[in-house]
Amino acid sequence: MATRRQFLVGAGGAAAGLAVGATTGALLVGDDDRARAEAAAARQQFMEAADAGERVARLGTRRVIWNTTVTEPIAAITFDDGPTPEYTPRILDALATAGVTATFNVMGWNGVHHRDVLREVVAAGHEIGNHTWDHRDLTSLDVHQTREELVRCKEEVEAVIGRPFTSFRPPRGELTGYALRVAAELGYDTYIWSVTRGPGNATSVTEIGDYLGRIVIAGDVLGLHDGIGQGTFDPTASFARALADRRELEVRALPAALAQIAGRGITLMSANALLSRSEPPPVGGAGPTPP
Ligand SMILES: [Zn+2]
């Protein structure tokens, strides 16, 4: 049965209409003082969120894109988590050879620590998206942390490259209502992806390249990587080493994949370029059939 405290916090969250899941966990803590302090902090956050909801917020219309409807054979290619000296330069070479312009969704910390690599990405004409400051799971963050993740990435990376981000990709595709609101405030459409490198247990460069070469169809948003996300901060951990192994295969498979996709008559481009050449989405209706 819900306690009065749980009810108050729950009601605050519902009123705000926002995802702030982590804060409610404080109610289960046995230590009464600590639980009371955490609940008070949670309420404060909910109130601030509710206040924000009551302010005039003409944020316009922003889109969440998995893939698009097109009348020509085009698709988007995107790279997340970089830039890194390990992967990004080789990806730039492969893209240059194939004559493809992509979207690089920059993890802010990497952008600032590898600014020369970031500048190479920009100089090659690729599009830059906001992938948060340090790749934390947005569903575990409160509203202040969420805002910090997007705004710090924007401010610090834009100071390096001298131009604004135009889109957002949430880490691991995990979104909250509040993250969408901050993205709207910053003027971003939000891109997820429709296809990625395929089965995680594939260990053959040929197999991965062939999968990518076959799976992409017109309108797809292909999600690949030029970094290892949270593994950046603990590179010797087993999960980070496993991610690095996966990325290495992905990068080595890229040239063959690009050639195969081009051979099938599909032109790859940045995410915003794809969207600008896509049909407007139908209003209402049942939507596409899930894969
Ligand atoms: Zn990521």
Topology:
Elements: H1 4-16, H2 21-24, H3 32-54, E1 64-65, E2 74-80, H4 88-98, E3 103-106, H5 108-113, H6 115-123, E4 127-130, H7 143-161, E5 167-168, H8 177-185, E6 189-191, E7 195-196, H9 205-215, E8 221-225, H10 238-263, E9 267-269, H11 271-276
Parallel strand pairs: 1-6, 2-3, 2-8, 2-9, 3-4, 5-6, 7-8
The structure holds zinc ion.
Q: Quick recap of the structure?
A:
The protein is of the alpha/beta class.
Main attributes?
alpha/beta; binds zinc ion; TIM Barrel; disordered N terminus; 291 residues; 47% helix; 6-stranded parallel beta sheet
Q: Number of helix segments?
A: 11
Helix content: 40-55%
State the CATH class.
Alpha Beta
How many domain modules? 1
- Given helix and strand content, the structural type is alpha/beta
Shape: globular
Q: What is the CATH superfamily classification?
A: Glycoside hydrolase/deacetylase
Largest sheet: 6 strands, parallel
